[in-house]
Design brief:
Radius of gyration: 19 Å
Strand content: 15-25%
Distance between the termini: 25 Å
Shape: globular
Helix content: 25-40%
């Protein structure tokens, strides 16, 4: 029996002084929408749980079912459905608006509770003497979207976390169509927020993100739904992550040409819209600190980012390592990546 082994190349160095203190191995793949490989590092055909990197496809499954028209969803609300948001005030307001439009209380959310990721938002909540609730969970927008899908399908909203729930079956089927994978063969587990999470290869994930970029190789309905989510995220990137987060900065720097989504355990996906290519990566040890540096390096190697854009992202491309006193003592940096001179399948 084949035992999957995920491995990567040593692509991210954590430097203290002049010494490489730690190294993160990364598996990564870039493809066009036909699956032609443009960049590959590590094992790209082993299953990887996409985690929140799959959220744009989940949101698109909700839109494909007619949720935008049925509930009058705004672009900001569509963006927050694809978000791992930081719990800032505008994130929470958008999630609550979705719940109000679909006629369900906040108690319908089964994503669990954690404080806002944004320090200022968490502090404001404490100073107001309030406790975080499920709407502050970074996945609350996604859960609100799945509840909207359940409503459209006439399915019991209380069971929306079950893998056999009609909404979850529709979501997995949509993700399978985008990535070109077989959902019956997928490893499926439970995500951090409780919904089913699937694993597919980085090659198929990159192909899916390329299709999200080009909108080719899809049915008209799927393409229109993906376009709606993509356009909402690009127009309102701060709703997808937070005002201080990497995905927000990358989409702003892309100026309409990049849509992206991070996931837990060091996963990332990028749709280079004008180039029609997709990129997916996984920091093998799950360290999120390696994600932004290697993504910027890969997009630079692929010609998606210019020198000027890379400089705009310097704080994410080469994050500074500080000591407890706030003194800069090192940095995190990616090694150069090689791009294929001729694509392969």
């Amino acid at each position: 029996m084949h035992e999957p082994i995920l491995d990567g190349e040593p692509l991210v160095d954590v430097v203290r002084g002049d010494v490489v203190e730690s190294v993160h191995r990364v598996a990564a793949c870039a493809c066009d929408d036909r699956g032609t490989i443009l960049l590959a590092a590590g094992t790209i055909d082993e299953p990887v749980f996409l985690r929140s990197t799959a959220k744009p496809f989940i949101a698109a499954a909700v839109i494909a079912a007619g949720a935008r028209e049925r509930f009058g969803l705004t672009a900001e609300e569509i963006a927050v459905m694809a978000a791992s948001h930081a719990g800032e005030r505008f994130h929470v307001a958008s999630v609550r608006s979705i719940l109000q439009k679909i006629g369900l209380p906040e108690s319908a959310l089964q994503c669990g509770v954690h404080p806002p990721y944004d320090d200022d938002a968490a502090r404001a909540l404490r100073e107001a003497g309030e406790e975080p609730t499920a709407v502050h969970n970074n996945c609350s927008g996604k859960h609100a979207g799945i509840l909207a899908l359940s409503s459209i399908m006439g399915a019991d909203p209380s069971g929306y976390l079950r893998p056999d729930h009609p909404a979850q079956r529709a979501i997995l089927a949509f993700c399978a169509r985008v990535t070109g994978d077989d959902p019956l063969r997928w490893p499926v587990a439970v995500d951090g927020c409780g919904i089913p999470v699937f694993a597919t290869s980085l090659r198929r994930a990159a192909t899916g993100f390329a299709r999200w970029a080009s909108l080719r190789g899809l049915s008209d309905r799927d393409a229109a739904a993906l376009a709606a989510v993509r356009d909402a995220m690009v127009a309102h990137p701060e709703y997808v992550a937070g005002t201080k987060e990497f995905d927000t900065a990358l989409m702003r720097v892309g100026r309409g040409a990049i849509a992206c989504k991070a996931g837990a355990e060091g996963v990332h996906g990028v749709a280079a819209i004008e180039r029609g290519l997709g990129y997916a990566s996984k920091v093998v040890d799950g360290a999120s600190r390696g994600r932004a540096p290697v993504t910027v390096a890969a997009l630079r190697a692929l010609g998606v980012l210019s020198d000027a854009q890379e400089r705009e992202l310097a704080g994410f491309a080469r994050p500074v390592v500080y000591n407890r006193a706030g003194r800069a003592v090192g940095e995190i940096r990616a090694r150069p990546l090689a791009v294929a001179t001729a694509g392969s399948t």
